[in-house]
Design brief:
- With 721 residues, the protein is α+β, with helices and mostly antiparallel strands.
- It folds into 4 domains: 53-153, Beta-Lactamase, CATH 3.30.450; 176-284, 2-Layer Sandwich (Beta-Lactamase), CATH 3.30.450; 312-477, Beta-Lactamase; 558-718, Heat Shock Protein 90, CATH 3.30.565.10.
- The protein has 20 helices and 23 strands.
- The strands form 5 sheets. Strands 13-12-11-16-15-14 form a 6-stranded antiparallel β-sheet. A 5-stranded antiparallel β-sheet has the order 2-1-5-4-3, with helices on both faces.
């Protein structure tokens, strides 16, 4: 009050200013009153709209951290059957505990200050019925959300029923056993079913871009157009005709076409419905029947001639059977390739009245065919002539596929320039492949009949069998010689093994005998050490012999696992660090960071690494260096399974150079490099032989190299393709 009096006193002291301020405030107050009135009217209108809108509407207001239902309209009251009255003042998470999507939408609308629209299935507790609702969430500043719901249940039911009806229609349309089309009055397709596409060989999309004349046979097109014109003019209600269509693959088919016209309610043409049935099999059967009838008439007319010809064929078949039997007997009774093939070409040439018959044997590696045997009563001999297959690209590729050929010489043959022949060529093949060919030369006017071709094919098959048998016999003889060599090697191996096994036993016997007469603890300890060393040597020898025998027999199938060498290798090398340190050796490990995954057997690979490191420690003098390195490299050795890269595992140690004459024997059993063991550690002589077998078993290769006072063993293993 005091401040107001002070202000009034100031206004009294300055009457001019007071009068001017009052005059300025009057329009403002009038505008303010007008705005308040307008706001009240708008509020009344909005309230009326809110209450009278046909959509159930609810008002939510944030109070603290929760949303409270504060208002609803009459439509909401009717929609919920009055149950909404009991929800006023309740929290959203209490009312929508079972519908988290509503809570999520309310919070999103309020948080992001946006309008959202969602569809959901909602069960009304008041009526215990499920409703499909479209729900709109409208943000009202500063902290309210208006929710409007629209019942889509009936619309959804109708849409579902319409969709099901349409699906049934299109299923019937598309699965019909005949072609069905809808075309406009201009002859352009609107719809076609799958059977229609199959009949014409087009896709649905391709057909919809075509017109009637694009696929109709020209001779049937005009008649089709006349019928269609009559149909559109109302002169006929439908028509049927047999006509030809041109498929996409340009094949002609026959079809029975039935067309009717669909009109609208006022009688205007809307579209044409066509039913197309493929009657090509019936037309072809009819044509075939007519042809068969004509053939029967012709056969009856020429029956006597056919009987004579058939009798001649039977006689020739009997003659050919006798020829084939003689050749078969020769194959059965002899393993002499030359005798059998010479018999075959002579018998075949005589039986078929040939000017010449010869056989060529293939060298597929060289790509050549060499004429080895012939029947040539009049022409000069061609035995020994070598033919390069690449010079006859129209002949040998088909022969190598097991197909016979009939040829006619256009240019005179350089071997027989005075004659031209009709030639029949048959490959000599069995289930192993093609080993050669038979050539039969005749006068061009004679030709070759089917029976003669079949005889030559049978003879060629018998010749192939004879060649295989003869070569198998020769191979068996070679194997007999090889087996004798193997038996000798086996005897030598057993002698070596016997010697290697006896040596530790003899040393153990000597150590036991010396133990019995030893007079001091020091001597007994030394002999016990010898006994232990020789016992271990004997056990190692036996174990490595067994492992080597198992690998050579291939009795064990290894399971390959993906291996990451970056993590796997260091623990395998670690046990050898202590040994290297005790011998004043430097052991280094180098692993490339970009190693691919290696499919291998971890146990076998660990044995390989251990044997190579053990070997390196044994032959490296004090102060020497041992290096284990792993890196990827290109696959230049063609390792299988083929991959672009291989993993190279390399063990290099300082040592005296191994002479080349000794290096070639380094992977042999019981081989030891003379005077190269500075630690006098000894060994079984089987370690590197075992390593080589293990490397081969896991699909790799190993090689040794010795130069510049370094010895290296390199293992290459295929990685993942």
């Amino acid at each position: 009050m005091d401040s107001r009096k002070g202000a009034e006193s100031k206004l009294i002291r300055r009457p001019g200013i007071s009068h001017r301020a009052g005059a300025d405030l009057e329009p403002l107050e009038a505008a303010l009153q007008q705005a308040e009135k307008l706001l009240q009217e708008r509020d009344t209108q909005l309230r009326a709209y809110y209450q009278n809108t046909p959509l159930p509407t609810y008002t939510w207001q944030r109070q603290g951290d929760v949303l409270i239902l504060t208002d609803y309209n009459r439509a909401a009251l009717e929609f919920t059957g009055g149950a909404v009255v009991n929800s006023i003042g309740k929290k959203a998470h209490e009312l929508y505990r079972d519908t988290p999507e509503v809570l999520e939408a309310l919070n999103q609308c309020l948080t992001e200050r946006v309008t959202l629209k969602r569809e959901l299935q909602y069960r009304l507790a008041s009526t215990d019925s499920s409703k499909c609702l479209s729900v709109s969430y409208i943000f009202i500043p500063p902290d309210s959300v208006i929710v409007q719901t629209e019942d889509l249940t009936e619309r959804t039911r109708i849409e579902t029923a319409l969709e099901a009806s349409e699906q049934r229609f299109w299923a019937t349309f598309d699965q019909a056993a005949v072609g069905i089309t809808h075309t406009d009055v201009n002859g352009r397709w609107q719809f076609v079913n799958q059977k229609h596409c199959e009949i014409l060989g087009y896709t649905r999309e391709e057909l919809l871009t075509l017109q009637l004349e694009d696929i109709s046979h020209p001779d049937d097109l005009e008649r089709d157009r006349q019928y269609t014109a009559q149909l559109l003019a109302g002169e006929i209600s439908s028509f049927s005709m047999e006509k030809r269509y041109i498929r996409k693959d340009e094949a002609q088919i026959w079809a029975n076409l039935t067309v009717s016209l669909v009109r609208d309610v006022v009688g205007n043409p809307q579209y044409l419905v066509g039913i197309i049935e493929d009657i090509t099999p019936r037309i072809l059967a009819k044509a075939e029947l007519q042809a068969m009838c004509a053939q029967v008439r012709e056969l009856n007319a020429n029956l006597e001639h056919q009987v004579q010809e058939h009798t001649a064929q039977i006689q020739q078949a009997s003659q050919f059977e006798a020829v084939l039997k003689r050749i078969t007997d020769a194959v059965r009774d002899s393993l002499d390739e030359a005798q059998i093939l010479q018999t075959a070409v002579r018998e075949l040439g005589l039986a078929l009245n040939a000017s010449r018959c010869d056989t060529g044997l293939y060298d597929l590696e060289q790509g050549t065919s060499t004429i080895c045997y012939e029947y040539s009563p009049c022409a000069p001999s061609s035995i020994g002539r070598v033919v390069w297959m690449r010079d006859f690209p129209a002949v040998y590729p088909q022969l190598l596929q097991g197909q016979y050929l009939q040829l006619c010489e256009i240019v005179p043959n350089p071997v027989r320039p005075d004659q031209t022949f009709l030639i029949l060529v048959c490959p000599m093949s069995d289930h192993h492949g093609v080993v050669g060919d038979l050539w039969l030369f005749r006068h061009p006017k004679q030709g070759f009949r089917e029976l003669e071709i079949r005889l030559m094919q049978q003879v060629a098959n018998q010749c192939a069998i004879a060649i295989r048998q003869a070569r198998l016999y020769q191979a068996a003889q070679v194997q007999v010689v090889e087996l004798k060599k193997v038996n000798q090697l086996k005897d030598d191996f057993l002698d070596t093994v016997s010697h290697e096994l006896r040596t530790p036993i003899a040393n153990m016997k000597m150590a036991i005998k010396m133990l019995q007469i030893a007079s001091s603890d020091e001597q007994r300890q030394r002999y016990l050490q010898i006994l232990q060393t020789e016992c271990n040597r004997e056990a190692d020898l036996i174990n490595e012999l067994l492992d080597l025998q198992r690998l050579e027999a291939g009795a064990e199938l290894l399971e390959l696992e993906p291996l990451h060498l970056q993590q796997w290798l260091p623990p395998v090398v670690a046990p050898f660090q202590e040994r290297a340190t005790s011998r004043e050796q430097c052991l280094q490990v180098r692993v490339a960071p970009d190693l691919p995954v290696l499919p291998t057997n971890p146990s076998s690979l660990e044995r390989i690494v251990a044997e190579l490191l053990n070997n390196a420690c044994k032959y490296t003098p004090p102060g020497g260096t041992i290096t284990v390195s792993v890196a990827p490299k290109p696959n230049t050795l063609g390792l299988r399974p083929y991959s672009a890269k291989v993993v190279e595992l390399k063990v290099v140690n300082s040592s005296m150079d191994i002479p080349a004459s000794e290096l070639v024997h380094i992977f042999e059993k019981f081989y030891r490099i003379p005077s190269s063991d500075p630690w006098k550690q000894g060994g079984t002589g089987l370690g590197l032989a075992l390593v080589k077998r293990l490397v081969e078993q896991i699909g790799g290769q190993i090689r040794a190299k010795s130069q510049a006072n370094e010895t290296s063993f390199t293992v290459e293993l295929p990685c993942v393709s």
